[in-house]
Amino acid sequence: MASSTDCPDRAPRAVSGATRRPSAGPVRLRTGVRLWALVLVVLAALTGCGAGSGTGARDDPAAGTAREHPSANPPAGGAPGTAQGRPATEAPAVIPGLGPRTRAWIPGDARQVVVVTGRDRNANHSQAVLYRHTGTGWEAGPVWPARNALRGWTDDHWAGDLRSPIGVYSLSDAGGLLPDPGARLPYDRSDGFAVSGTGFEGEPLEGSFDYVVAIDYNRTPGTSPLDLTRPLGADRGGGIWLHVDHDGPTQGCVSLQQQHMRDLLLALDPALRPVVVMGDAASLRE
Questions:
Q1: Segment (H or E) for 113
Q2: Radius of gyration (Cα) for the chain, nearest Å?
Q3: How many Å apart are CA 129 and CA 115, to the nearest integer?
Q4: Which SS3 state, helix, strand or coil, does residue 40 take?
Q5: Residue 32, by phi and psi: left (phi above 0), alpha (psi -120 to 50) or beta?
Q6: Where does the record place the region Disordered (predicted)?
Q7: By percentage, how much of the chain surpasses pLDDT 90?
Q8: Which helix (DSSP H) or strand (DSSP E) does residue 263 occupy?
């Protein structure tokens, strides 16, 4: 269970892999309009298309965390997006469930945000959603079930407290025991991600680190998730990862089902400056 203390105790390894989105008013018909004309009008009212995207420059977080660099810059503008030829529901201008303090922590150039919302402060079940900025608003991906640390969440994380840190952190490096599935983040395939033993509920831990995305809490971005450098000191924990769920709570990480971790790895794009926003629901609403 990767967390402040559960990364494999191995020497750091070098990173490998690639450095690698008009409403029509009511139509009135005149008497005598032919049936084929009516059909054409109806078909025209039901079709539409369009697209939009947004980009920005990278944030440079201190001690590997974006939380310490709040930004009030509004997202860049663009054209409304649509999906598969059908008129799109307008994406919200702000990510639902996030209050002004949490939104201020998100760097202004972030165009991908993984939101991990805990059920409450002491719960170890949560959910994760990947949002992407379309140019005019935030488009949500699927809701994935997730788990977090055994004792829930904290805004003052220390090694061994068995709580996941609340905050906003950049996502810059990935890796795992399995081969690179095609990630655009730098990916370190290493036997150092092998894990054995059992978790808090007696569940086997094998395979938990098949896929990993390092959360930039107390780490140096641009290094393998296995790197043991702790800029804030070892007592503040480290090795906080997104990794594969082992059907039990973690020591500090966030875990997703294996397919969802693979989907996340394929989706995250360093050009979109991805970050994770994580914490219990009440804290994230602040």
A1: strand 112-118
A2: 22
A3: 5
A4: helix
A5: left
A6: 1-25, 51-100
A7: 68
A8: helix 258-267
SS3 30: coil
Whole-number Å distance between alpha carbons of 64 and 69: 11
Could you report the per-residue pLDDT of 127-181, keeping only the tens digit for each?
Answer: 999 999 999 999 999 999 999 999 999 999 999 999 999 999 999 999 999 999 9
Q: What integer best gives the mean pLDDT of the chain?
A: 78
Phi, psi of 235 (to 5 degrees): -70, -15
Q: Which positions ≥6 away from 108 have C-beta within 8 Å? A: 56, 59, 71, 72, 73, 74, 75
Both tokens of 82, joined, read 């649509």
Q: Report the 10 Å Cβ neighbour count for 106.
A: 24
SS3 145: strand
* Cα–Cα distance, 252 to 160 (Å, whole number): 9
* Residue type at 44 in one-letter notation: A
Is residue 185 within 8 Å of 175, Cβ to Cβ? Answer: no
* Nearest CA-CA partner of 276 in 257, 251, 253: 253
